[in-house]
Specification:
This protein is mainly alpha-helical and 145 residues long. The protein contains 5 helices and no strands.
């Protein structure tokens, strides 16, 4: 099974490189772009003046072969490795839960005896307690003479 997967992977890489070559050799719609930079005139020299249709058909068939190879390799990989990371994680989690018993949470609220240590930047300054002192009695400046 491993030999088949390795061979099909090699065929897929070669098909991918061939598809890249086909796309780069084709003439662009406006005679500009990457096709011209990578030798778009070579398609006419190799396949003749009507090479656009021929290259377009080969590109379509090569893309279809690449898609079939990708789907086939995915199916072969899943058949050769039946477990995946999700089931492995679930099994490890179940084993851990069986080994370590979990204590039920207590219903009593926890009290904090000391305030948390801080850097003093986020704490508010202590306010002085307000004491009630009687206001001074109003002195009358109007005296009867």
């Amino acid at each position: 099974m491993i030999f088949v997967i390795g061979f099909l992977t090699l065929v897929m890489v070669v098909t991918c490189l061939f598809l890249i070559l086909l796309v780069l050799v084709q003439l662009p719609k406006k005679d500009a772009g990457a096709g011209m930079a990578f030798g778009a005139g070579t398609a006419d020299a190799l396949f003749g003046a009507g090479s656009g249709n021929f290259l377009t058909k080969i590109t379509g068939w090569t893309a279809a072969v690449l898609l079939v190879l990708a789907l086939g390799l995915g199916k072969l990989q899943s058949m050769s490795q039946p477990t995946n990371a999700a089931t492995d994680f679930t099994k490890k989690l179940e084993q851990t839960q069986q080994q370590v018993p979990i204590a039920p949470p207590s219903t009593a609220p926890k009290t904090q005896s000391t305030p948390p240590a801080g850097n003093g930047l986020l704490t508010t300054p202590m306010q002085t307690p307000i004491t009630s002192t009687p206001a001074p009695a109003a002195v009358s400046t109007n005296s009867a003479k």
